[in-house]
Design goal:
- The chain is mainly alpha-helical and 95 residues long.
- The protein is built from three helices and no strands.
Length: 95
């Protein structure tokens, strides 16, 4: 398997897993008191925005040419790290 294809598959699987985690966090946010709902809503909006950026970058990654692959991959890694950090922080806040 080509390295680029393997990378794309790995990132797609990771994005799918993170989407499931975001859905779980949304469910947890529904079961808190009113004051916490506002705080959780802000966190969820931020996570959803990061998720949208990651989905857009995944689309860009899938169509990247050989000439732009390295640059798109580098940017993707930064976006993935940002989303991963956001999910971890949300999990700690929602405990």
């Amino acid at each position: 398997m080509e390295i680029k294809e393997a990378y794309k598959q790995k990132m797609a699987a990771q994005l799918k897993e993170w989407s499931a985690q975001i859905n779980l966090l949304e469910a947890k946010a529904e079961n808190v008191g009113a004051s916490m709902k506002v705080r959780h809503a802000e966190v969820m909006l931020d996570l959803q925005a990061k998720q949208r950026v990651a989905i857009e970058k995944m689309t860009e990654l899938e169509s990247a040419s050989s000439e732009t692959w390295d640059q798109v991959k580098e940017t993707s890694n930064k976006i993935w790290d940002d989303l991963k950090t956001g999910i971890a922080e949300a999990h700690s806040k929602f405990k």
